[in-house]
Amino acid sequence: MKKTLKITVALVAVLAGLTSCNNSEKSKGRSGALASNVAEKVYVAPGEHDSHYAFISGGYSGNLTVYGLPSGRMFKEIPVFSQFPTNGYGYSEETKPMLETSFGFVPWDDSHHPDISQTNGKLDGRWIFINGNNTPRIARISLTTFETEEIIEVPNSAGNHSSSFITENTEYVVAGTRFSVPVPQRDMPIKDYKGNFKGALTFIAVDPEHGHMDIKFQILMPGFNYDLSHPGRGKSHGWFFFTTYNTEEASTLLEVNASQNDKDFIAAINWKKIEAYVNNGGGKMMPAEYTHNLHDEATHTATSTMKKEVRVVDPAEIPGAIYLLPTPKSPHGCDVDPSGEYIVGNGKLSANLTVHSFTKMLDAIEKKKFDGDAYGIPILRFEDVLAGSVEQPGLGPLHTEFDGKGNAYTTFFISSEVVKWKLGTWEVLDRKPTYYSVGHLTIPGGNSREPFGKYMFAMNKITKDRYLPTGPEMEHSAQLYDISGDKMELLLDFPTHGEPHYAAAIPAEIIKNNSKKIYRLAENKHPRKATIDADTKVVRDGKNVHVYMTTIRSHFSPDNIEGVKVGDKVFFHVTNLEQDFDVPHGFAMIGANNAELLISPGQTRTLTWEPKKVGVWPFYCTDFCSALHQEMQGYVRVSPADSNIELSWSLGD
Ligand code: K7E
Ligand code: CUA
């Protein structure tokens, strides 16, 4: 026991030491991206389009960024869990409800794993989902508007990390807790963790037509850490797999105490069985508070609803639905190949990469070959479920993706490389260095039944000497590889924004023709819209002043407003009358304690301003929209609180 501890401490120390990488020598070799013909492979001529979209998670930015492949050009940052002054998301009255939670307004999160909706196991390009890790939430973003449409909070969860992964017909988006916690939350000693804390795995049903999310059930699992997950597909459709670590159930010094067991588990969940159980009234409703926030495209307005209960299922109630597959050692990524047969457990502290067989798992279950249980959940024998292992492929495996041609690609954080190996024979076919300390990797569609195996990109944690230095902190770096040949070929480095954990990528043609160009004014149902100049007005309601305003190149209507007083709360409801693609207007008010608005064509957005000082105060358009953009401005006269100046507004004489 003492010896194990020593070895573990030594191993952890070695791993920690190795993470400070020293790969700059490798980068000096004239190969890969340094070969002269490689630039052509990533060159997208001016005016031409990239062949793929990549949606890269923002990590601690809380957002999602949109890139083109192969150029590595960033097109957009989509605000999801974080306020975004660039367009007013989370500041405008219409979007503030998106960031409501049971803890109140939470204007930030840590977003990790985007996943694109699927139909029959293929990417359908309708929506992309992403998890908020810190204050557990799942968001749905439309891939026609590229805006966040919906966020649902996940109760009984903490560190929403084994999320957000999609079943092959987008029946569910699945979210699992990394940190186990008391369920329900209560005041109790931390040292009583073991046996008392629970890990909630949450199945959120997705409405097939509109994508609306609703928690169908939560499974209250033993108090392990549920790190990553993936759905079964093809033959294993109906199952979901979660890696666990800290099966020791330690609550302190996890770097040592959660590295004791030789094997942790992959939890295999037969969700179809649990779904049937729940449809027959199984499980029980438990009081819980969580928000459901929905942005309505017609009213351009989000609402936040507090939900009061959630259906929970105790694994003991439904024998035969959950099994544990022993997996060495503190596995991180949990990846399922396109056929659904192989389940890869990327054991961070393991010398070999473990691959389980779905067929063997079913067989062992059928023959009831169990090796004890954990809190009543049967444990299968490692040898009975093992398909094979890749022997000593590298150090510190994290994640695996697939090219659809029988090959798998695994990232190794410590040895800073991507290793290509063959499913079934487990032989290593190729390895390429990454710069440096790679986390996730992405192949377009690599997380579906039909990957598009031309490109792979690695997302690296340490950038160091790859770009011009920008002070102590560098943006993270992605590296694009051509994987169409036998050997991987490094094509390009490009910077990413925030911390890119995972990314989802898809051929551009699946999405680009559906991309919305304008919001139709005729369809605008915002209750305070103004769609023609005659609708514009200023209305006083006690201390609240509502300005119904329009914008069109190149003026606001109205642009002169008088009769506002100190102590009023002014709501600028600004409708952009433009019906041309890519002509937003901005709206900014001096001294406003929030941000600007950036209003898309046909959209209505509201900025709140509480004038504090007497004077004549300007507002202006922030987006250079026409040759007369600089003329796009106006004034609000603010009088003392006791003034009797009448409310008036005008445009022109
Ligand atoms: Cu960065 Cu998927 Cu959150 Cu691994 S996780 S690296
Ligand atoms: Cu509108 Cu500048």
TrEMBL record:
Which InterPro entries does the UniProt entry name for this protein?
Copper_CuA, Cupredoxin, N2O_reductase_N, N2OR_C, Nitrous_oxide_Rdtase_Sec-dep, Nos_propeller, NosZ/Cyto_c_oxidase_sub2, WD40/YVTN_repeat-like_dom_sf
Q: What is its EC number?
A: 1.7.2.4
Tell me which UniProt keywords the record has, alphabetically: Copper, Metal-binding, Oxidoreductase
Q: Give any GO molecular function from the UniProt entry.
A: copper ion binding
The organism's place on the tree of life at top rank:
Bacteria
Family matches, as PANTHER family: CYTOCHROME C OXIDASE SUBUNIT II, NITROUS-OXIDE REDUCTASE
What is the protein named? Answer: Sec-dependent nitrous-oxide reductase
- Which organism was this protein described from? Gelidibacter salicanalis
Q: Which gene encodes it?
A: nosZ
